[in-house]
Amino acid sequence: MVDDTELLRGAGLRVTAPRLAALRAIEASPHTTADDLVSALAAELPTTSHQAVYGVLNALTGAGLVRRIEPAGSPARYERRTGDNHHHIVCTMCGAIGDVDCAVGHAPCLTPSETHGFAVTTAEVTYWGICEQCAAAEQADEADEPTGAVVPAAVPPAITPSAAAPPVAAPGVG
To answer: Is the pLDDT assigned to residue 70 strictly greater than 80?
Structure first.
């Protein structure tokens, strides 16, 4: 297996401490945000600025070593799973994100009914739902409601996961 130093060199990028640290942090926490990455790097590289992290992310995504995804209502997220055409599933309650492989055969979603002259290279599908943990918490909350109480219909909040509930892959996904 090729190590991160060789990956950077192979992509024509200089090997720097922030780039190596970012690759390690994204590997440890897939679907991380730039802000989460700044926090993750703070212990190892306390003088690394937000601007430096954005520069690192731009270099890594430009070189194809990191993939940027942008689920609606959520800040951009970064992952190291590149080179395939996988999709994502997002919890509308806590913002947890999991990877989902194409459902049938070899990237069937790359064959649209109409291309309008485009050469299709990537397709993004985002599934939305409620993760097991949020569904269980919601059921527990409903069980605590007094009998006969009228509970207003839940409106999913904008995807803004808190530090207390970091995004995690949904069980059995990716």
So the answer is: yes
